[in-house]
Amino acid sequence: MWNEEIECMSREDIFEFQLKKLQKTVKRAFDKIPFYTEKYTNANIFPEDIETLKDIEKLPFLTKDDLRACYPFGMFAVDKKEIIEVHSSSGTTGKPVVSGYTQKDIDSWGEIIARGLTMMGLDADDIIQNTHGYGLFTGGFGVHYGAHKLGATIVPISTGQTRRQVEIMKDFGTTCLIFTPSYGIYLGEVAKEEGVDFDKLRLKAIGFGAEMWTGEMRDRIEKTFNTKAYNIYGLTELMGPGVGIECSAQNGLHIAEDFFYPEVIDPETGITLPEDHKGELVLTNLEREGMPVIRFRTKDLTKLHYDTCDCGRTFVRMERITGRSDDMIKVKGVAVFPSQIEKALLKVSDIEPHYQIIVTRPDIMDEIEIKVEASESLFSDDIKEMMGVKEKIAGYIQNEIGITVKVSLVAPKSIPRNTKGKIQRVIDKRNLN
User: Which residue numbers delimit the AMP-dependent synthetase/ligase domain (predicted)?
Assistant: First the structure.
């Protein structure tokens, strides 16, 4: 699925076809979706005003609240009978966001993922074990369609059944695992308990995503499974996984620019930022038929790089997501991201990569407690050794985030594991309403 003609185009040619696709998408959305008709009319912006790519900045942003307000099918640009599949977000903070797909959209999704699997070194001879959840969650199906497009064998085992996952991995000769980082760590733990010799497995690549992660976490996964791990980025609103996927260079995720137009903005002002400036990622569908999403604020923080990659691709690369503009923990006036805590923890030996961040406000001041699992050997050592490790952890975290935290070492396997998808890292017990 290496599409050299598209993936290695000159930047000038990329911008030219993006403009044509953007103009077509904006007109179609304006003509077919009442939400866009009203929103753009109220903003006094019309399809004919989009004469250059920079003119996209004239269009108002789209937010999750907008999509929820159109629940369930108000954002569809085609008759419902043309929608052959729907997915949705969890809806944990309100009405879920519904995502609709025509057959053409499903084909496009498969094409995008297949390209990414090719970047990871996979082909039709591979066996891909997909631990992402199926159902309304887009994760499982995106990889599934991509594997079909590639011609590879897909094992749709979904989440959970961890010991069965290990058995399948050995018996089927799995060459690629797809998982969330936290579930991958847990899967590796169980595999070690089962006596798996990773050197004897046929694994040649891991695809991971759907959660925040750090370079140290990737290193841990690669050392555990003895293979390279490649980041996959996506979101339900735009399509699902596959918006960005890492290539062999592992130096940022290539965005499929023939399907998506990326921008980075200042999350406070909404002003578009130049290349190499960190800000909030904004994405626009360029090819989507069933539900074109235009200038969606992802809340994910990243940078974009337009130089040619070592792999030869010219498609823009986005850096891994290092936080979100809306889910940070603000403590004592300091913005703290869980990824900063994780980065500090992974520098310390004698602890396991399982932790929880508990934020409280016992009086008028915020407090953070970091619960971290001790290793079996450390937990059986004397109290002096444990105190030394706690002080080291506290020091690393303070150096990373600039504030003091309380560290608690807890018994091995006492922190709940992720067995069914994303894990809850932060428990905020403050009443901030």
Answer: 87-283
The residue with tokens 């729907």 is 86
Question: Residue 397's closest CA among 351, 360, 361?
Answer: 351
pLDDT tens digits for range 384-404: 788 888 999 999 999 888 889
| pLDDT tens digits, one per residue of 228-261 | 999 999 999 999 999 999 999 999 999 999 999 9
Rounded to 5 degrees, φ, ψ at 112 are -65, -50
205-209, strands of its sheet edge to edge: 153-155, 127-130, 176-179, 205-209, 229-235, 240-246, 253-255, 317-318, 304-305
Residue 90, pLDDT > 80, answer no
User: CATH: 3.40.50.2000, 3.40.50.12780, 3.30.70.1230, 3.60.21.10. Which one for 1-325?
Assistant: 3.40.50.12780
Identify the band that residue 4 occupies on the pLDDT scale cut at 50, 70 and 90: confident
Residue ranges per structural domain of the chain: 1-325, 329-428
CA distances from 214 to 110, 225, 299, 334 (A): 28, 17, 18, 20
* H, E, C per residue of 230-257: EEEEEECCCCEEEEEEECCCCCCEEECC
Identity (one letter) of the amino acid at 235?
L
**Percent helix, strand and coil across the chain, each to the nearest 5:** 35, 25, 40
Name the helix (H) or strand (E) containing 209: strand 205-209
What does the DSSP 8-state code read for residue 147? H
- Domain 329-428, CATH homologous superfamily name and number: ANL, C-terminal domain (3.30.300.30)
Mean pLDDT (the chain, rounded): 91
CA angle 394, 400, 405 (to 5 degrees): 35
Are the beta carbons of 193 and 145 closer than 8 angstroms? Answer: no
Give 97-119 pLDDT, tens digit per residue.
Answer: 999 999 999 999 999 999 999 99
CB atoms within 10 A of CB 433: 3
Give the ranges where 286-362 is alpha helix by DSSP (H): 338-345
C-alpha span between 343 and 85 (Å, rounded): 39
> What distances in angstroms separate CA 98 from CA 89, 134, 235, 250, 423, one per listed residue?
7, 15, 12, 32, 23
Go through the chain and tell me how many residues it has: 433
Please give the structure tokens belonging to residue 275. Answer: 């290349």
Tell me the backbone φ, ψ of residue 215, rounded to 5 degrees: -60, -35
Strands 205-209 and 229-235: parallel
